[in-house]
From TrEMBL:
Keywords: Apoplast, Disulfide bond, Manganese, Metal-binding, Secreted, Signal. CDD domains: cupin_OxOx. GO terms for cellular component: apoplast. Pfam families: Cupin_1 (PF00190). GO terms for molecular function: manganese ion binding. Belongs to the germin family. This is Germin-like protein. Residues 1-19 form the signal peptide. Residues 52-198 form the Cupin type-1 domain. It is found in: Secreted, Extracellular space, Apoplast. It comes from Aristolochia fimbriata. Oxalate binds at residues 102, 107.
Amino acid sequence: MEMLRFFFFFSLLFAASNAADFCVGDLKGPVSPAGYSCKVEDKVVVDDFVFSGLGVAGNTTNIIKAAVTPAFSAQFPGVNGLGISLARLDLAAGGVIPIHTHPGASEALVVVQGEICAGFISSANKVYFKSLKKGEVMVFPRGLLHFQINSGGGTAIAFVSFSDPSPGLQITDFALFANNLPSTLVEKVTFLDDAQVKKLKGVLGGTG
């Protein structure tokens, strides 16, 4: 009996020692919903686990006056398979990240400069929002619609983390008005009139 116990314990240790420590994404290989295939371990280098892009401000000279710098598996192969990723959020004065959703991940946001009004809408259509100051953190549950708005006078900066290396993104305004979905259909599903839909399509580059 003691020998069986020893053998069982040794087998567990051996199995654990052979488990993969990581799966650095092979960005040249195929990608699936489960992520990238693993890079050959002999070709893994320390820089696969280091990302420097979050130290640089994003370009906020655009229609939303905001920029998101992602450190997802496509940019940061070391997070592939780890269930985490990060991003930097830059909001110029008046900047906004429109209502959007991340189908694959929950999100945590920490403000490091300025003031950001952030919130989300539950599946029961209850709204949770607050103006966050430097050092404050807010979480956004997976898949729920949420937003961030610069509610201060100067530039606002936040860092965000996600519970998936590839959280996905769908911005509601762009989904409705930045493609070729026929205006008549958009009008029916949004209760907007034709003039409003055509105006928004014109602003966001949609057709139809």
